[in-house]
Specification:
Blueprint (H helix, E strand, L loop, with lengths): L3 E2 L16 E2 L24 E6 L7 H16 L3 E7 L13 E5 L3 E3 L5 E3 L6 H19 L3 E5 L10 H10 L4 E7 L5 H11 L1 H8 L2 E5 L7 H4 L4 H4 L2 E3 L20 E5 L7 H10 L1 H6 L3 E5 L6 H13 L3 E4 L5 H7 L2 E4 L5
Parallel strand pairs: 3-4, 3-8, 4-5, 8-9, 9-10, 10-11, 12-13, 12-15, 13-14
Antiparallel strand pairs: 1-2, 6-7
Helix pairs in contact: 2-3, 8-10
Length: about 350
């Protein structure tokens, strides 16, 4: 039977700060003896499958974090392959060196009151969720993962993941099921009420082998703040904060003109920052000899996007982008960054 061993990494390291799953020996050989570069994945004597479920109703932070973890694992274990299930329409916009394929679930949206709905399809919500639920279960059956990594929502959106988790526990008990969570979900009282109401603590105890916290217990100890039961505390590992390696894209020549980068992540709630910057700061930056690069984000509501792009076109020394696949490149070029500082 396989097992997963974790390497807990400290804060501040200039590399991916997350857990790298180390798969133990099976009859066909060991991962540690493999060469780092193989011409064909078919040649791997001991391949491993990782099935990742990525929360997807708003923004791109959850997706980017999951991709970073998969990429970090792939570097250490070149025989691992990854199937990522997500409803986000933006997965294909990000390139990756890791062997990651996708299951595109029908997309969801979430309103200000926290209610989910169909993002594109004209389907009743109940039918939509049955569709997503069956896709996840079929994928788990046929992909036959060695590890399942669940992001953000331990039950899945609207409990869609429970049939998959139960099937794996009953039919594939050797699969290591891991829940990955950021350290601060919400106000402790609000989180405890929601998790108690939805049966999250029971699911963590019954369905998961480990809970990975992307944070540090000295900063925020989720086991105490969210009152984890003793059985769940025993499964909890603090993995450090997830970072991304610097990209290897060719460096563009530095302009002599100072540059301000304005980014609001996915953009779903960034209209106020963008509107305020264009009205109050863009002109002053231009007057001081600088230029502004504004990235609206793929989820910026269209009713705001149109108005803001007109403002950007009329403002001096302002460039507008709807999306940037490599934010690292943009940040390296900038002299100043204005951002909302999204959590994920």
């Amino acid at each position: 039977m396989s097992r997963v061993v974790h390497r807990s990494l400290s804060i501040g390291e200039d590399r991916l700060i997350a857990s790298v799953a180390e798969f133990s020996t099976r009859e066909t050989g060991t991962m540690s003896n493999l060469k780092l570069k193989l011409q064909s994945r078919v040649e791997c004597p001991n391949p491993r499958n990782v099935f990742a479920y990525c929360h997807d109703s708003m923004g791109i932070g959850h997706l980017r974090r999951t991709l970073a973890i998969c990429e970090g694992t792939a570097k250490a274990h070149p025989c691992a392959s990854f199937l990522l299930a997500t409803g986000t329409p933006y997965a294909s916009l990000f390139s990756s060196s890791a062997p990651i394929d996708y299951i595109k679930l029908p997309a969801l949206t979430k309103d200000r009151d926290g209610a989910y709905g169909c993002k594109y399809l004209a389907l009743p919500m109940e039918r939509m969720m049955r569709c997503r639920e069956s896709m996840l279960l079929d994928a788990a059956k046929h992909f036959a993962p060695d590890v399942m990594l669940v992001d953000k929502a331990p039950l899945g959106v609207c409990r869609e993941l429970l049939p998959t988790l139960r099937w794996l526990k009953q039919n594939r008990p050797d699969v290591r099921i891991v829940f990955g969570m950021r350290d601060i979900e919400d106000d402790p009282d609000a989180t405890i009420r929601e998790w108690t109401r939805n049966g999250v603590y029971e699911a963590l105890a019954a369905c998961y082998d480990e809970i990975w916290v992307y944070g540090n217990s000295d900063v925020f100890d989720v086991t105490k703040e969210y009152k984890f039961p003793g059985k769940v505390v025993q499964k909890t590992r603090f993995m450090g904060y997830v970072t991304r390696d610097c990209c290897d894209h060719a460096t563009k020549p530095n302009s002599h003109q100072p540059e301000v980068l304005v980014t609001v992540g996915g953009g779903s709630d960034g209209e106020t920052v963008l509107r305020t910057y264009l009205a109050e700061a863009a002109g002053r930056v231009a007057a001081a000899g600088g230029r502004s690069v504004i990235i609206g984000g793929p989820d910026l509501p269209s009713r705001f996007r149109k108005k803001l792009k007109i403002q950007a076109e009329q403002a001096p020394q302002v460039s507008w982008l709807d999306f940037e696949a490599c934010m690292s490149c943009r940040m390296h070029q900038a002299d100043l960054i204005v951002t909302m500082g999204g959590y994920n």
